[in-house]
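As described in the Methods, two query proteins were run sequentially through the folding procedure within a single session, without resetting any intermediate state between them. The first query and its resulting structure tokens are shown here.
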Amino acid sequence: MASTAGPGHGAAADTPRPPGGGATVRVRLLAAVVALTATALSVAGATSLALQLRDADARIDDSLERAVTAVRALEVGQPDPAAPEDLEARVPWPSVDLLLQKAVQNRVPGEHEGVVALQDDVLRWRPAPETGAVRLDTDRELMTWLAEVVAEDAGASRPRTVRTDVTEYRLVAVPVRVPAQPESRGLVVVAFDRPALTAGVWRIFATYSAVGILVLAAVSAVAWFVVGRMLRPVRMLRDTVRRVTESDLSERIAVLGKDDLADLAGSVNAMLDRLERAFGSQRELLDDVGHELRTPLTIVRGHLELLDPSDAADVRATQALALDELDRMQRLVDDLVTLATADRPDFVRPAPVDVGRLTDDVLEKARGLGEQRFVVVSRADVTARVDAQRITQAWLQLLANAVRFSAAGSAVRLGSEVAGGRLLLWVRDEGPGVPPEEEERIFERFHRGQADRVQHGAGLGLPIVAAIAAAHGGRVFLEHPPPGAGPGVVFVLDLPAVGLVDGASDVSLELAEPHR
């Protein structure tokens, strides 16, 4: 399928196709289905044909072996007319010719079977025409070959195949002798017209081949239709991706059915949703960064243009203002760098940390954030694997937010505890709380609530907290105090309690209420 061009590389519809064109997926799948079906039909047909031909040959050879047995039994002698009927007395044959005559008479030719008898390479006996036997004597090439067999006395009496211009024979040539004429040699030949006997098998195979071709055509038509239906979401995906541009990511694929291709379409739609949000955030990022940097730059430029170098007081005031604005830009750049490195594997470096001591350290550092009363409500005296610096950074950010949005002298509570295999670090203030319509967006980059806009916040503090929590395999979320517990809001860092040593919690006597 075609791939979209990245931002700044033009529309996805301009993406070139692979050199040489190449067959479509539909054609390749159809070719594979047709090839597999044709192979299966061919193997099945060839196997069936081979088995039926082998069975036909086995039946022919069995009949020939029975003919040899009958001739050998007859060669022993003829029945004695003077002996009683219940005895099987035999007397020698007086001549080879009489033995050959009897052998031909006793053999009733079957379908496509012929019998001849030769004496000293001369044809002596054959069945009458009305028997329907194959006329072996009319095949000159066969008769010449039989004369050579008599001359060589090749009396193996085994079935063999002989091909002539007339047909292909499967036959036995049985040499016979009688004591009365030791110098005379006889030959009884029983032969089958093999192509005539196997013609039925070949007709069946021809019918099978014709049906196989029809089946192959039907399979091809059905496969073309089915593969087309199956690949419809892929074509829709291709067309949708081609229509997607860096300025329009609103295209979506219709999800049809519940198969793997439907899952693919849903996944691509989800990817487009993420891209749309990412590009939207990127544009907002550029707009917000431009705005945040443009304001201090404008302020510094304006004051520098109006600076009176001869007025020392004006120089000092302008210097202080410029340094203050530069510090604000530096904080913004530092926050952006922090968020940019949040996806790196070394963003956090977990190590065993005493959570109780970390709680006390954060409390001491928080006292310089404002004039609020900072109170540790619960302290988890455990050791867990976390990045102490990043956790301190996130925790202080939550405390800084609490200071910004609560009155001086009000209580800001913090605590740590272990519950359900999770390490919970939280902050609660007594401020006005977060409006319901903003609760879902406060962790988005550069999202600033109304209070943030008044206080000129950049909207990066809570996203940094969320990134630090995610890097630890956890999350940050907002809760409201239960009814009757007073105003404010609770921010909770919910982290997996990895490497936990002791799960006991030490609760402060000053405020023994849970954070929820």
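Immediately afterward, the second query was submitted; its sequence and tokens are:
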Amino acid sequence: MPTRSFASFRPAPRRIEDPPSPDALFTAFLSSLSVDEGAACAVLYSAAVRHFLSWLGLRGIALETLDDHVAHRFEKHRCRCPGYSAQEPAYKADLAARVRRFIRFLEDQGYIVVADGIDDLGGHLAAYSHQIDALQLVEALSGAYRSEAEHFAIWLRVSRRPWTEVDEGVIEQYAGHYCRCPAFRKRGKLASSGMKRRRRFIRHFVAFLRDRGAIAPVEAKLEVHPDVAAYLGWLKQHRGATDATIRRYRPEVDRLIAMLGAPVLWDAAGLRSAFARRSKETPGSVSLLVTIMRSFLRFLIGQGQCRPALLHAIPSVQRYRLSTLPRYVDPATIERIISACPTDRPVQIRDKAIILLLARLGLRASDIRDMRLDDIDWRSGHLIVKGKSRRSERLPLPQDVGDAILTYLSTARPKAIDRHLFLRAHAPFRSLSSSAEIAGIVARTLERSGIEGLPTGSHIFRHSLATNMLRAGAGLESVGTILRHSSPETTAIYAKVDLPMLMKIAQPWPGDLSC
């Protein structure tokens, strides 16, 4: 059910002539509300508006200067107006709410000129409504999206804020504002859950307006150290680093600057102390920490801000790449996992197609998350995969995988404008947000199959595919091609998992023989 509103959102030309008499103005106001003059609602509006007009006349306030500040003064005034008596605070709040609707009517009629800083707001709201319809949300949720967008537009006008000033700070003020806006909705201050809901809906609407070019994007006003900014730009332009790599490097570099200060003051003792502190905080990322610190030091040395000898202050970390065996699952267990995938509901059909892609092609979770409808060539039976190397690879599409995807597309995939292959099963129908969602699908499938003791991540299928291919007689080059490894050394870790072959070439242990 659409929310009732008193806002037209159409730009009104400025009225040159003087406003009509209070009676004529009030009659036009009731007509805009679609309220009969004899109704009880009309009586309440009549008392509020006539009291307000009388109060304006006593204080000499012109109609064209009305805003929310004037309405607030009227709400808080100690009534001594002729013909009117003092009222209770709760009633005065309702009185002011009706007055604010009257002020909005004057704005829509052009008696009060307001510069919103946006063109065709009504058209943008209509386009936003169509986009919400395309998401196929339930009626209550879609109505909430539309209602909150209109409420935000009303609040901006009431606050006399132009759309050009909308940023995260303005959204936060809206989320926590004490509502007295001229629209049908809950009054007062919302609970924390309601504020969170407001914030989420308005961020969605503001992002929609920015995508349409209706309002200019607001750049994040974050204080970035000049050396850090130069380093991140160097990674992007000269080293070809991806956005994900830059996001991972930046927090560590920021912490390093915060701990040691300006790079010109760095020394070996300070670097070692910072490294020891960070390695204790994140023991599982020590190798990456060494890589980041050395990369930043090389950049600073190249810029002449650090002594070259400081590069040797970062200790080396021993990494034994071949010290453990990759965990894998035998082919019989893989088939058991696949057979445990039901296909009674749309979400189960989607999950089975994802499990088959993991098991048959050894794809990464990120590969499946980013896969789009155009990546499948049905005529040639190929699948285009964009991996971590940022280049496209063509892989053969097995028959059972193709059948599962086709079943999902024809019977289970929601009709949505999103071009990603796999979408969420419930509205709003968007793509999977992260690889963790695919890991959750794997965990639910393993639990359903009753198999215990296996990792719940999706990478277990990748390790299993490589191991089973080697045991079936495939070469390392073939395995590397299927898994899309850029270096043969990465594929070489699977050479040690063929234990029967290793047993044939293993030499007896010398025992107690002397060296």
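Residues 1-6 have pLDDT under 50 and may be disordered. We note this only descriptively and draw no conclusion about the first query from it.
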